[in-house]
Amino acid sequence: MRALLVTPLVLVAAICHAEEPRIYQRDAMGRIQYHEPSYVVQDNGRVIETDAIGNRKYHKQQYQIKGDTLQPISATGDVQHHKPSWVIKAPPSKQR
């Protein structure tokens, strides 16, 4: 009986641990704004907007991370060259 109870718990724990990284908005005080839209980063580098619950909004603008650039893409994965792209830079290190 215990083996039947432990097995589903292990499966749930494994599924919850395998979530993709999320990007949240912060306010001026640095607090995470969970009620605002956030973004999920998939393994292939695609960035998709999600709502507060975590549902993906495929109809919103999506992005693709390629090297050090963030390019806007369509829902089918085509790069949208007429929209601006961004360069990803690491923040400057603080030297003392």
Question: Could you give a short description of this structure?
Answer:
The protein has 1 helix and 6 strands, in the order αββββββ.
Q: Would you give an account of this structure?
A:
A hairpin with a 4-residue loop joins strand 2 (38-41) and strand 3. With 96 residues, this protein is of the alpha+beta class. It has one domain (19-87). The chain has one helix at residues 2-17; strands at 22-23, 38-41, 46-50, 62-66, 69-73, 86-87. The chain is built from one helix and six strands. It has a six-stranded antiparallel sheet with strand order 1-2-3-4-5-6, with no helix packed on it. Helices cover 17% and strands 24% of the residues.
Listing every helix as H and every strand as E from the N terminus to the C terminus, the arrangement reads: HEEEEEE
Return the structural class.
alpha+beta
Separation, N- and C-terminal Cα atoms: 60 Å
Shape: globular
Average pLDDT, rounded to a whole number, is: 81
Which segments are poorly predicted (pLDDT under 50) over 5 or more consecutive residues?
1-17
Give the count of structural domains.
1
Largest sheet: 6 strands, antiparallel
Helix content percent band: 10-25%
Rounded to an integer in angstroms, the radius of gyration calculated over CA atoms is 18 Å
Q: Tally the helices: what do you get?
A: 1
Beta strand % = 15-25%
- Overall strand count: 6
Question: How do the strands line up in the largest sheet?
Answer: 1-2-3-4-5-6
Q: Which quaternary structure do these chains form?
A: single chain
From the structure above, extract its key features.
about 100 residues, alpha+beta, six-stranded antiparallel beta sheet, 1 helix, about 15% helix, globular, disordered N terminus
